[in-house]
Design goal:
single chain, about 250 residues, alpha+beta, Barwin-like endoglucanases, eight-stranded mixed beta sheet, 15 strands, globular
Length: about 250
């Protein structure tokens, strides 16, 4: 783990928390990871920066907790077997903020068209009906591909990558995207905010570089918790970390 475990509610080891906290790779020396989780979560709760199940307010503006999404992979059962061998199943590494989602122990190497690679890209569970690699624009440029901005699950025009695991490799001609910025909402929050699934809205991040993001997609499911998802490029541009809050500004 490259950051303080538990600090990021959608933690996929982006490293931002570690760099800003002034610590290096690995967990905090001398402390069990579970203890670190509890300490950090209590500190964030005390500071009022912990994730919320529903909207708070700031100066009359509804607040939405931020989750920063690092590069990650969603796989089909068939591709998992190709990469990790017959009988392979996803092993849970840590629970993610959304109730059904988890980071798996398994990671793979992704290779672009210029033979540039990124190692240890984590797989997220549960398994899906399609293979999808979610990258930042910076990742896409490094790999030498042109990953388009797409809503999750829309792989029309997605860029190609080769995935390499311990048991084999697979070339996926349409798998890599830069995910559209979006908000997960349960129905009660969507109603309170006056939006529906598919609407586009605007949010303000008041990090060290305050920024307004427009065209943020609203996604609604009663099994979800309220959370804004930005990728690492977007969050870094504002100087914001997981656990901070965005102000909801209404429809774009």
């Amino acid at each position: 783990m490259v950051n303080l475990k538990g600090l990021a509610s959608y933690c996929q080891e982006c490293g931002a928390c570690a760099s800003q906290a002034g610590i290096g790779p690995g967990t905090v020396a001398g402390l069990d990871g579970h203890v670190v989780d509890q300490i950090v979560e209590e500190v964030m709760r005390t500071l009022g920066k912990g994730p919320r199940d529903s909207c708070g307010e700031n100066n009359g503006k509804p607040l939405i907790p931020l989750g920063v999404s690092n590069r990650h992979i969603h796989l089909t059962a068939e591709t998992l077997v190709t990469l990790f061998g017959k009988g392979a199943v996803l092993e849970k590494y840590r629970q993610l903020y959304q109730p059904d989602d988890f980071a798996a122990k398994q990671t793979v190497t992704i290779v672009g068209s210029k033979m540039r690679s990124i190692q240890n890209v984590r797989i997220l569970g549960p398994l899906r009906k399609y293979d999808q690699v979610e990258l930042s624009t910076t990742d896409s440029v490094f790999l030498g591909i042109a990953a388009p901005v797409r809503d999750s699950g829309n792989l029309d025009g997605a860029a190609p990558l080769t995935l390499v695991g311990p048991a084999g490799s697979v070339y996926l001609p349409h798998c890599a995207i830069v995910a559209s910025r979006h908000i997960h909402m349960p129905g009660k929050d969507a109603e309170n905010l006056g939006v529906r699934a598919g609407d586009l809205c605007s949010v303000r991040l008041r990090g060290s570089k305050p920024t307004i993001f427009e065209n943020v997609l609203v996604r609604v499911n009663d099994s979800w918790k309220l959370q804004l998802h930005l990728d690492t490029d977007e969050a870094n541009a504002t100087g914001s970390l997981c656990g901070s809050n965005a102000e909801f500004l209404g429809k774009s």
